[in-house]
Amino acid sequence: MSNTPVKETHTFQTEVKQLLDLMIHSLYSNKEIFLRELISNASDAADKLRFEATTDDALYEGDSDLHVYIEADQDARTITIRDNGIGMNRDEVIANIGTIARSGTKEFFGQLSGDQEKDAHLIGQFGVGFYSSFLVADKVTVTTRRAGLEKEHGVRWESTGDGQYDIETVTKETRGTEIILHLREDADEFLESFRLTSIIHKYADHIPFPIRMLGTPMPAAEGEEEKPAEIETINQASALWTRPKSELSDEEYNNFYKHIGHDFEDPLARLHQKLEGKYEYTLLLYLPKRAPFDLWQAESKHGVKLYVRRVFITEATEDLLPRYLRFVRGVMDSNDLPLNVSREILQQSPAMSAMKKGATKRVLSMLEDMAKNASDENTDYATAWEQFGNCLKEGIIEDSANRERIAKLLRFSSTQDDEQTLSLTDYVERMLENQDTIYYITAETLAAAKHSPHLEVFRKKGIEVLLLSDRIDEWLTSHLEEFDGKKLKSIAKGELDLSNIGESAEEDKKEHEEAAKSAEPAVKKLKESLGDKVKDVRTTDRLTESPACLVSDDFDITGNMERILKQAGQDVPSVKPILEINPEHELVKRLAKMRSKDKIADFSDILFDQAILAEGALPEDPAGFVRKINSLLTQ
């Protein structure tokens, strides 16, 4: 027998206290969402019971009429939400209500600004769930029992939201969960049946389980006793995705999204299709307006739920959509999978594989349509790219089958316009005569990319260069080697030959050869002075204003990639860069004439460290660099 005390008092996890305080102050104008969240939880509990009961019918305990019951008591000033779903045991109550077991919680609170409207959106992305009860209640009592446990294993949880909660073992005759909200003084509106009914119609009409309430008493005929009120089903209690599109309004679609996405805003786009053929399945998928708070957490869950013939099976799995589409929300309903499907069956099922493939293609089609219709007035795709663009870049790496389609969805800044983004298709259309390569540069920031000395000859010749400043861009470009028959090339890697582009190409080539010959003494001195700091020293025609820059060999990782990996804790051997010098720069000409070994050494170090700084990195010895610069300035 357990030695656990019958009743205990616990302190809320710190993050729960913060969330409660933030919700009460940020969501004061949207209190009605408490009912949406609690009904959603009750529906999930019914879904889970129905799924578990497919292999253990005894869990129904003789009652398979799954439903949610809501009751308002004006005298006691309480609202009760009761379900006969899966219920919870003691440990689950503590885990689900006393703590927020989510990755990224700390980062979420760090994003909050104090602006109530902005914070309300963030809280919506985080998900408020059960804690929304305290928007309208100053005390909440939860009584629950997990299906399959004896009646004496019920659990009662109670709190006034002041930092503590009580939990005790009680007897509960029926499975499921009952939540009693003791309303605040300013929440009387929710005691009115018509108010509760309107909220149910607004947010929960699509819930596939009946939501029941006690109706108004029937008026009695003269001489008869008043007839008692009857229990009524308020919602349609049919899975929204099974209904024809022609019967559904935008409001119904949007409210369903808010239910499954726990969001306060309408979605950016939606996709509703029933597919028939070898496998039959229905998709109702949504694109949010804002990225979920945990989009970049390794443990973040996907937002698509799998149903089999309208019975909930699972959610948050890469078996439904690839990881790079983890921002999509919605449902997939199959007619071909067994109800007792396991994770292993999901991974091996031809039907599941076909559904995943079909859903992926249709999400990409939805994004393609948005991109095609983008304009100054229609900025939906620009919003989608801002929020989820880096996820799509992951798709280039992960999804070779759809790489070409995803590549057309990519957007980049460029030297032609670093404030507006352009597609690779746009870039190819704007290429100069004789240009057969798509040029790009990667850097830690957009500013570092925009001001890189590597761009100098490209600006002189009017050749557009893509400016890539997201960390994932280094991996992206290693997997996207060409587009539309044009190779992609980093302007900071390997030899550069622009001799066939531009009207004065031949003349420029001749001038560079003459300057390179005169710079040979400088090249020799730099090689001797820098030694094993560099792989090589050579003249270049890629510089017009700067004296030097660093270049990687074609098959070496870039300096930016090396820094990224080291910052991530990777043990990466240093790759020696190639130092390229501008033979026409005054500093290089001066170095060529120097004879003092000490001055040559200092001058060489300064040129090398300047090139490192131009990359957006720091020299190995910043203080030494400053000392040498100061010495040079005083001469």
Describe the protein in words.
With 635 residues, the chain is α+β, with helices and mostly antiparallel strands. It has four domains: 7-238, Histidine kinase-like ATPase, C-terminal domain (Heat Shock Protein 90, 2-Layer Sandwich), CATH 3.30.565.10; 241-372, Ribosomal Protein S5, domain 2 (2-Layer Sandwich); 380-385 and 397-490, Rossmann fold (3-Layer(aba) Sandwich); 505-634, Up-down Bundle (Four Helix Bundle (Hemerythrin (Met), subunit A)), CATH 1.20.120. It is built from 21 helices and 22 strands. A nine-stranded mixed beta sheet has the order 1-6-5-4-7-3-2-8-9, covered by helices on one side. Strands 10-11-14-12-13 form a five-stranded mixed beta sheet, sandwiched between helices. A five-stranded mixed beta sheet has the order 15-17-16-19-18. Helix 17 packs across helix 19 (586-593) and helix 20 (597-614) crosses helix 21.
Provide a short characterization of the protein structure.
This protein is α+β, with helices and mostly antiparallel strands and 635 residues long. It is elongated, with a radius of gyration of 32 Å.
List keywords for this structure.
five-stranded mixed sheet; 37% helix; Rossmann fold; Ribosomal Protein S5, domain 2; nine-stranded mixed sheet; 635 residues; Heat Shock Protein 90; alpha+beta; 21 helices
CATH architecture field of the largest domain:
2-Layer Sandwich
Beta strand count: 22
Q: Major β-sheet, in short?
A: 9 strands, mixed
As an assembly, this protein is: single chain
The gross shape turns out to be elongated
